[in-house]
Design a protein that fits this description.
heterodimer, A: 11 helices, elongated, B: alpha/beta, six-stranded mixed β-sheet, four-stranded antiparallel β-sheet
Chain lengths: 279, 353
């Protein structure tokens, strides 16, 4: 330390490439940082894995024994529903991680460097999406081990994965926005569960909406999550739900909701990210 | 807007050339810089400048607005009104150029907790634009210079506060910045780590780095800075060299420290009879008498004390301290550093706004 001299190694800064090239390079570096931290704190993945596993076991082996849905094995009813529910829980995971990053000061450090600011938020979103994908893969794997048999072909599989990625992207942007607005990751978790949990129960995840009493049935029919759950089930098992327009046309509805969420959340998140900054 | 990213910035030429520095070569200029959060004015029309190659300290108690000020200069927070420039580049219009000229080490070491010390340094170096090979060389050199070798492969969350601050400082010096901003560089550090930070800072200054630091320690500002901007409730209440500020609060005085409180009371009574003005601080058993004639007053007081026969520990001529300056200029003493938590909360609050 006493020998601290400044130019012990003096390597001139390389010429700066154009903004587009810099954006890609910086995003890649920052995504790598997010991914590396996942392997360092695997328990962080528990948010996206333990919960679906508990729901799977609870409904498959405890409540499931009393649930009889005509025309479909309960595994095949439950698992696509849980995938839909997990998409929505992504809001909470992404929001908590974002709130953490923003309060820890590490985002400020990146923002005080001469890096393109879009790369910081892009990397934040990509890192979260990857984390959610890992969680979903595990959930699906456990589901298959417990007897879930999706009935889609190759095309259907692509459709399923495509819809999942679209949903993840939408909910992650939503979560990143919420994480920047929330004051702490604890607040984010509290608010998130208070909203997402009831909506996911009413969305036909575990039992069909048609059989619910009037009030929950009407909420369920218009609950955006219902279209996600119905779309997952429609693509993976070929089933059709009944009730509102959105559950009868689940794929169009799900794509519509996703586009709407992205159209609202992306500009708001970018604005929120910029308003705290000068240039 | 085109920015040249070679090493030849306006400020850089000042170090390389042989011409002596002149007054208009300013690394930082703020002009009525203001930041409001709703109804709360955190920074209230602060104007100051930092000459290239100099060290300026923003000195003030918790919550005075120091951190908000440097966050605006570092382009992390947009000013509500007023302007700030770094080497002539406006922080709002030309943020990218500002960021390429300066480095900020925040109050809370901003590192990725779940990466090792080395991985953090490599990431910061690569984000500056270096390729893998050069980044490895630069990082190894930083690890050497900042004595990080011992814990280079430990996750940052598991190292001590002093070690963490070293990594943070190293991360700020990947590229030698024209302007280094240190926000409370030694808050919460043990005395040894504080000395280490101070000696690093002195080395950097000797190399020609312009330094703007914030501190709530009067001793630190006195120790490191050539110019002090005293900040209170978002306003710059005084500016000057440490000696200027001391001069502003007036004269020398004689401090007499008695052996016990009974002696203090007896001495005060005896001297009062002889028409000495005085202030008595019972907690420290100190009696202070103004000494505008310095040595003459000192000997007069010393004789008077000796004549009373009351035992004393010390009779000394004192120059005013920065603590006295703060009291004289702001009407209240500098708050102690014990409630760092309040500051921590208020900074987090700012970060969210």
């Amino acid at each position: 330390m006493s020998t601290a001299t400044i130019d012990a190694v003096s390597i001139p800064l390389p010429a700066r490439p154009g903004p587009g090239q810099r954006y890609l390079r910086e995003t890649a570096l920052l995504v790598k940082r997010s991914l590396r931290t996942i392997s360092r704190v695997p328990e962080r993945l528990s948010d996206v894995t333990i919960q679906p596993i508990i729901f799977t076991l609870l409904f498959l082996y405890v409540f499931g024994s009393a649930i009889n849905i005509p025309g479909i094995r309960y595994q095949d009813y439950l698992l696509p529903g849980l995938v839909g529910q997990s998409l929505a829980f992504g809001v909470i995971g992404a929001g908590m991680a974002t709130a953490n990053d923003f309060t820890s000061g590490v985002i400020d450090r990146f923002r005080s460097l001469p890096v393109t600011r879009m790369s910081v938020i892009t990397a934040e979103v990509i890192g979260q999406v990857v984390e959610q994908i890992l969680g979903l893969t595990l959930t699906a794997g456990i589901g298959i081990a417990l007897g879930w048999r999706p009935s889609f072909g190759v095309l259907g599989a692509f459709e399923f994965v495509g819809l999942v990625l679209l949903g993840l992207t939408a909910f992650t942007w939503f979560g990143v926005l919420m994480g920047m607005v929330a004051r702490s990751s604890e607040a984010m978790q509290g608010i998130g569960f208070a909203i997402v949990l009831p909506l996911s129960f009413l969305a036909g995840t575990f039992v069909p909406i048609e059989g619910m009493k009037t009030v929950p049935r009407i909420i369920g029919e218009w609950d955006p999550l219902s279209s996600f759950v119905a779309a997952m089930r429609h693509v993976s098992q070929g089933t059709n739900a009944h009730g509102s327009w959105q559950v009868e046309h689940p794929i169009v509805a799900m794509v519509g909701w996703c586009v709407l969420i992205i159209a609202i959340c992306v500009p708001l998140a970018l604005r929120k990210f910029r308003t705290t900054t000068a240039a | 807007m085109t920015v040249t990213y070679s090493q030849h910035h306006e400020c850089a030429s000042l170090f390389e050339g042989t011409t002596p520095l002149t007054h208009h070569e300013l690394a930082v200029v703020t002009d009525r810089l203001t930041k409001r959060f709703g109804d709360f004015t955190a920074v209230d029309e602060i104007s100051f400048s930092v000459a290239t190659g100099s060290v300026v300290a923003l000195l003030g108690p918790n919550g005075a607005g120091k951190t908000t000020t440097v966050r605006m200069i570092a382009t992390l927070l947009a000013p509500t009104s007023g302007t700030a420039t770094v080497c002539g580049h406006d922080v709002e219009k030309d943020g990218d150029a500002v960021r390429s000229l300066m480095s900020l080490t925040g109050q809370f070491a901003a590192l990725e907790d779940n990466l090792t010390a080395r991985e953090n340094l490599v990431l910061m170096t690569r984000l500056r634009g270096y390729d893998k090979r050069d980044a490895a060389k630069i990082t190894d050199d930083l690890i050497d210079r900042f004595d990080i070798g011992e814990f280079r492969d430990q996750l940052v969350k598991s190292v001590s506060g002093g070690q963490r601050r070293r990594v943070d400082l190293a991360a700020s010096l990947v590229v030698q910045p024209k302007l280094l901003v240190l926000d409370e560089p030694t808050t919460g550090l043990d005395p040894r780590s504080r000395q280490v930070v101070w000696s690093t800072v002195r080395d950097l200054v000797a190399q020609g780095v312009t330094l703007l630091l914030t501190t709530q320690y009067l001793e630190e500002a006195d120790e490191l800075a050539e110019q002090i901007v005293l900040i209170d409730h978002g306003k710059a209440v005084a500016t000057g060299t440490p000696a200027d500020l001391k001069a502003q609060i007036g004269d020398h005085r004689v401090d007499i420290t008695t052996v016990d409180v009974a002696g203090l009371d007896a001495l005060a009574a005896a001297l009062r009879v002889q028409d000495f003005d005085m202030t008595v601080t019972r907690e420290r058993r100190v009696l202070s008498i103004p000494a505008p004639r310095q040595a003459l007053d000192l000997s007069a007081v010393a004789d008077a004390v000796a004549a009373t026969g009351i035992p004393v520990d010390e009779v000394a001529l004192r120059r005013p301290t920065l603590d006295d300056a703060f009291l004289a200029l702001t009407g209240h003493p500098a708050e102690s550093a014990t409630d760092v938590d309040t500051e921590l909360d208020s900074v987090r609050e700012e970060a969210r706004v």
